[in-house]
Design a protein that fits this description.
With 270 residues, this protein is α/β, with parallel strands linked by helices. It folds into two domains: 187 residues, Rossmann fold (3-Layer(aba) Sandwich), CATH 3.40.50.1000; 69 residues, Hypothetical Protein Ta0175, Chain: A, domain 2, CATH 3.90.1070. It contains nine helices and 14 strands. The strands form four sheets. A five-stranded parallel sheet has the order 4-1-12-13-14, with helices on both faces. Strands 8-9-11-10 form a four-stranded antiparallel sheet. Strands 5-6-7 form a three-stranded antiparallel sheet, covered by helices on one side. It is globular and about 50 Å long. The chain starts with a strand and ends with a helix.
Length: 270
């Protein structure tokens, strides 16, 4: 029976230059591998050791990248090893099978959102009406499923985020602040639902996972064993659950530790 590894990507396995957290002396910094280029510029990295471990993990488990990124944003990433047979994008809105979105899965997701949540247009209108252009840099709709803002974090009023979360709660949506992005996501749009579908299709008897943000909490609650890094929303709120290990490492070294834990656990006798 296979082991399934469902992992968030940004600030869990891969890191922008700003998120690397290289606090050690320069001479002791780990060697890095660039795994994403956007508009001819390097964007995301992992350590070379993590890259090697990730290749080894592909021989031991079904590795499923599990991200809030859109399909276009995900396909910019060039992870080491073979292309995963499954990938989860748009926070569970798209299940990629050999790089192609499963149409039946997407239809099921959109039907559930239509029946359980306020429409995207209402949420987007509220975001644009209440957000201050002084600290909003971009506003985006992702895959016609959810919305997010890119903001100047140091100017963002904390009270505004709390008020937005309370407003969204009554409409079946959730709010998550990740770095410079504020996400408004329908509650039924979850990574965990898509992971359960992949587990069903593969017959996995052990599911491992990792994530750093509040949007990853449902994923971690759905796995048998999980890890969270020492940074991110989950660490800031001291979030924990049975079977979840809080790691002390922060930044790109946390990503390396997570892959190491995946591999060690996948290889352990069951």
């Amino acid at each position: 029976m296979p082991v399934l590894v469902a992992s968030d990507l940004d600030r869990t396995l891969i890191y922008s230059a700003a998120a690397l957290a290289l606090t050690m002396p320069d001479a002791r910094a780990p060697r890095l591998l660039c795994v994403e280029v956007h508009e001819s510029r390097p964007l995301s990295y992992l350590t070379e050791t993590a890259a090697r471990l990730l290749c080894d993990l592909g021989d031991e488990a079904v590795f499923v990248p599990t991200t809030t990124r859109t399909r276009k944003q995900y396909l910019r990433i060039n992870l080491p090893g073979p292309q995963p047979a499954y990938a989860i994008c748009a926070n569970g809105g798209h299940l990629l099978v050999d790089g192609v979105s499963d149409a039946d899965w997407h239809r099921r997701v959109t039907e559930r959102l239509a029946g359980e949540c306020a429409p995207l247009a209402e949420v987007r209108e509220h975001l644009l009406r209440t957000a201050d252009p002084v600290w909003v840099r971009k506003q985006r709709v992702a895959e016609d499923l959810f919305a997010y803002l890119v903001v100047e974090r140091e100017l963002l009023p904390e009270e505004w985020v709390k008020e937005l979360a309370a407003w969204a709660e009554g409409r079946g949506w959730t709010v998550s602040l990740q770095g410079r992005k504020i996400y408004a996501v329908p509650k039924p749009l979850t990574k965990s639902a898509a992971v359960r579908e992949v587990a069903r299709r593969t017959g996995a008897d052990l599911v491992l996972g990792a994530g750093d943000s509040l949007l990853d909490a449902d994923l971690l609650l759905a796995v048998d064993r999980g890890w969270r890094p020492g940074h991110g929303e989950l660490a800031e709120t001291d979030w924990s659950a049975p079977g979840i290990t809080a790691l002390p490492e922060r930044g790109v070294l946390a990503g390396e530790r997570i892959v190491r834990e995946f591999l060690r656990t996948a290889r352990a006798p069951r």
